[in-house]
Amino acid sequence: MTLQQLKYVITVAEEGSISKAANKLYISQPSLTNQIHEIENEYDIKIFTRTNKGIIVSQDGEVFLGYARQVLEQSKLLDERYKSKAPKILFSISCQHYSFAVNAFVDLIKKYDSNYYDFSIRETKTYEIIDDVSKLKSEVGILYINDYNKNIILKLLEENNLEYNLLFRAKPHIFTSCHNPLAKKNSVSLEELKDYPYLSFEQGDNNSFYFSEEILSYVKKSKNIRVRDRATLFNLAIGLNGYTISSGVLDKDLNSGIIGIPLEVNDYMDIIIITHKNIVLSDMAKFYIESLHKYIEP
Question: Domain 3-69 belongs to what topology?
Fold first, then answer.
């Protein structure tokens, strides 16, 4: 097996067609087919299944492609690190929309500042966080679990060869405008919130309650607004007196005009750090995780 063969397999999977993949790779169809067969014979698996609509990836093929993408990603990192005349410092995390994750990321960049670096922080959907860490697009992922979604999330982690560690347990709060009529209360109930717009992060194709970034997403609300980024959500909270439900950890400098109020529910949020079981954490990942602890006091 070669890296080139892995690229061939991934391209065929992406295109869903041998002919389209061959055109994209600038090789003949028979040659590409032979390369695929070589890999299948070497590992005694069937990566693709032919149908009247083209080819689809088999069950074994899905697993193989997961490993193939990891190998190519690591190869790319090696090339960027050692073949470049000016090697870049590379690091990436994927997380739900938490200000403490951003604060720790700032600490990391200050710590490892250089003339050449390539850092990424992806505030993204729950399912994509798991996918990113599984495929080594990110070294660290941050999300929450509780009694409602725990079994589903932990099953996904296990299936994707990931492990987790608890960062902290949070008491649910609402985030809302400091001008909201409820702002001066020491705590609020779900009943008091019923007339206010509920703001949540859109989860795309995996828009199940289990993948929601907010607890109690399954509780019916009369006014719902879904957004994709934190700035928009907070602008709507200020403009419409809307609210979202989160951990209660809020950076007032980054999020001026927003306050956290304890929510009167018998529930919790375990904020966890997910990593790949087969990867030894880099020094940057270890530093980042240490820095997170500085910002997690509600």
Answer: Arc Repressor Mutant, subunit A (1.10.10)
Place of tokens 């879904």: 226
Identify whether the C-beta of residue 260 lies closer than 8 Å to the C-beta of residue 250.
yes
Q: 267 Cβ partners below 8 Å, 6+ apart? A: 146, 147, 172, 215, 216
For domain 170-269, the CATH class is: alpha beta
Coil, strand or helix: which one is 125?
A: coil
Q: What pTM value is reported for the model?
A: 0.70
As annotated, the residues of the chain forming the CATH 3.40.190.10 domain(s) are: 170-269
Phi, psi of 66 (to 5 degrees): -60, -45
pLDDT digits (tens, 9 = 90+) for 54-112: 788 888 888 888 888 888 888 877 776 666 655 555 789 999 999 999 999 999 999 98
- Please tell me the predicted confidence (pLDDT) of residue 274: 97
Would you state the structure tokens that stand for residue 79, as one six-digit string? Answer: 């090339």
pLDDT at 170: 92
What's the rounded Cα separation, in Å, for the pair 137 and 193? 38
Q: How far apart are the first and last CA of the chain?
A: 51
How far lies 89's CA from each of 94, 187, 247, 288, 295, in Å?
17, 44, 31, 14, 24
Q: Which residues of the chain have pLDDT under 50?
A: none
Residue 231 CB coordination number (10 Å): 11
Q: Nearest to residue 245, comparing CAs of 222, 265, 229, 228?
A: 265
Tell me the backbone φ, ψ of residue 148, rounded to 5 degrees.
-75, -45
**What residue ranges of the chain are covered by domains with CATH 1.10.10.10?**
3-69
Q: If you compute the radius of gyration of the chain from its CA atoms, what whole number of angstroms results? A: 23
User: How far is residue 124's CA from residue 121's CA, in Å, rounded to a whole number?
Assistant: 9
